[in-house]
């Protein structure tokens, strides 16, 4: 009986080429697994049929949109996850969910090998294989693009020689990964970091400079989870999907970044994540209103470490699990509404309200009704600055 290889299938160049390549190289039956993460674009049934046309023995499509939103995007939102303070973890979030379904497919079809289309230069090889090591350490991994040193031009040539039904050609050289949380674009002329992105690079966002009327939206959170837009109860998937459209129409969420990859190189990446950027902006502001100062200060460090762990492919790690517990506890009071104006490429907070608010108008106001006892301030300042005063006196004594 031929070996069975379960392939993470996207419908793009690398994974389409991998099907006939693995079948020939390993004398294997290839089970293609495509996961619908709300990426839009092509119909998933077209992708399923393409895998069969490329030679797959079985082709499976998993509808994981709601699962992705609730179990992966929401935790990232509650952790304000931005790698290098800018990247909203578009690809990083999807890989552990795909791994979860690859393992399930291997169990269902009797697969002994798992394969992906990642190269040796990228982060995704680590994300896939670290996840597999945690969930199914008995499965072998083969990465044809990495293990057999494909180059992109050779993969395109192989696809053309085999007559594979894929869209990527020499005239369309971009590598694109997209899901509900955003879209990542690389390669082609973008590899020259002096070249600016052209408008045809973008699909989730409109030109921010184009004239249009602003869009005002009210986002409701319950313990850090988005539950409504403009008073309409929605699932997290529905919230993100609608904000992708509305914020995207205003050009919100474009990121052009030279980032530090896990493998040690710097890489130019262009992202567009309109819903993610709008939601993180709103969530951060609601935390400003509802989270106590020292907890908020400490959480900023936790958020950064959480983002690094997920970027590095350690979703299924003990530290990530522990940080999840901290973040969940820190979200107990993050409930309320945030009003935003979406316009000109920006998501601007214009109002916030919460039954859990720590903002006290009578303490904050400078007008009549001020309840802050300013007579206490002099002694507070003296005691607060005392250590610095003593240290300065010592330094003066010793020159």
UniProtKB/TrEMBL annotation:
Gene Ontology biological-process annotations: argininosuccinate metabolic process; L-arginine biosynthetic process; urea cycle
This protein's GO CC annotations: cytoplasm
InterPro entries, sorted: Arginosuc_syn_C, Arginosuc_syn_N, Arginosuc_synth, Arginosuc_synth_CS, Arginosuc_synth_type_1_subfam, AS_cat/multimer_dom_body, Rossmann-like_a/b/a_fold
Protein's UniProt keywords contain Cytoplasm: yes
Residues bound to L-aspartate: 119, 123-124
PROSITE patterns (UniProt xref): ARGININOSUCCIN_SYN_1, ARGININOSUCCIN_SYN_2
UniProt keyword annotation of Nucleotide-binding present: yes
Catalytic activity reported: L-citrulline + L-aspartate + ATP = 2-(N(omega)-L-arginino)succinate + AMP + diphosphate + H(+)
Quaternary structure and interacting proteins, as annotated: Homotetramer.
Family from the record: Belongs to the argininosuccinate synthase family. Type 1 subfamily.
Protein name: Argininosuccinate synthase
Lineage of producing organism: Bacteria, Bacillati, Actinomycetota, Actinomycetes, Streptosporangiales
Gene name of this polypeptide: argG
């Amino acid at each position: 009986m031929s070996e069975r290889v379960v392939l993470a299938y996207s419908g793009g160049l690398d994974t389409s080429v991998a099907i006939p390549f693995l079948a020939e190289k390993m004398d294997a039956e290839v089970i293609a697994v495509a996961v619908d993460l709300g990426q839009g674009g092509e119909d998933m049934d077209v992708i399923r049929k393409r895998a069969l046309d490329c030679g797959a023995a079985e082709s499976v499509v998993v509808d994981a949109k709601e699962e992705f939103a609730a179990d992966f995007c929401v935790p990232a939102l509650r952790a304000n996850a931005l790698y290098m303070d800018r990247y909203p973890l578009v690809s990083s979030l999807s890989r552990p969910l795909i791994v979860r379904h690859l393992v399930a497919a291997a169990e269902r079809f009797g697969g002994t090998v798992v394969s992906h289309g990642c190269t040796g230069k990228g982060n995704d090889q680590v994300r896939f294989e670290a996840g597999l090591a945690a969930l199914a350490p008995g499965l072998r991994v083969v990465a044809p693009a990495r293990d057999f040193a494909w180059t992109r031009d050779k993969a395109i040539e192989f696809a053309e020689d085999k007559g594979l039904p894929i869209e990527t050609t020499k005239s369309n050289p971009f590598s694109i990964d997209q899901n509900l949380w955003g879209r990542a674009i690389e390669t082609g002329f973008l590899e020259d970091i002096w070249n600016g992105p052209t408008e045809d690079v973008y699909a989730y966002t409109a030109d921010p400079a184009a004239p249009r009327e602003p869009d005002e939206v009210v986002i409701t959170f319950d313990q850090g989870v988005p539950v409504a837009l403009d008073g309409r109860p929605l699932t997290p998937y529905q919230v993100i999907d609608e904000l992708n459209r509305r914020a995207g129409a205003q050009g919100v969420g474009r990121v052009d970044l030279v980032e530090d990859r896990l493998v040690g190189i710097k890489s130019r990446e262009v992202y567009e994540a309109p819903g993610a950027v709008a939601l993180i902006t709103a969530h951060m502001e609601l935390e400003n209103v509802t989270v106590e100062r020292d907890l908020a200060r400490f959480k900023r460090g936790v958020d950064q470490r959480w983002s690094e762990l997920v970027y590095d492919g350690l979703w299924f790690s003990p530290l990530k699990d522990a940080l999840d517990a901290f973040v969940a506890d820190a979200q107990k009071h993050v409930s309320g509404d945030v009003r935003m104006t979406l316009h000109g490429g920006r998501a601007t907070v214009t109002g916030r309200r919460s039954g859990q608010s720590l903002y006290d108008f009578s303490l904050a106001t400078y007008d009549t009704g001020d309840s802050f006892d300013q007579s206490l301030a002099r002694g507070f300042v003296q005691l607060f600055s005392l250590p610095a005063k003593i240290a300065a006196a010592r330094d003066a004594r010793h020159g």
